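Quick log. Single chain, no ligands specified.
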Amino acid sequence: QVQLVESGGGLVQTGGSLRLSCAASGRAFRNYVMGWFRQAPGKEREFVAAINRSGSITYYADSVKGRFTISRDNAKNRVYLQMNSLKPEDTAVYYCAADQLVSWGAQALPVPESYDAWGQGTQVTVSS
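-> predicted structure:
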């Protein structure tokens, strides 16, 4: 199973940008669909974005579409989340997730239970 470690979180003002990175260790990173989720205090874990194994197809939550971009580098075993035009409501702990078997589609990708590997999370705080 792949192990995931996120980095790149921090404090940023409204309208600012951050780039999150998720480093994966283990074998066959290119076999995993990768996702980003976030969880704000008192709220359930929320889907943000996903990317297919080759990096050719992406899928986003409506709340981040047009502002966030997910990408991956299979040679470096990394997945990224570029976050632009940040808003206070983007404040959350951001988690990287991976799964080899998740079906590509709107029914499975946004569901946390579809992924069997998770990182420890990185805090993103957007000040108003």
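DSSP finds no helices and eleven strands in the chain.
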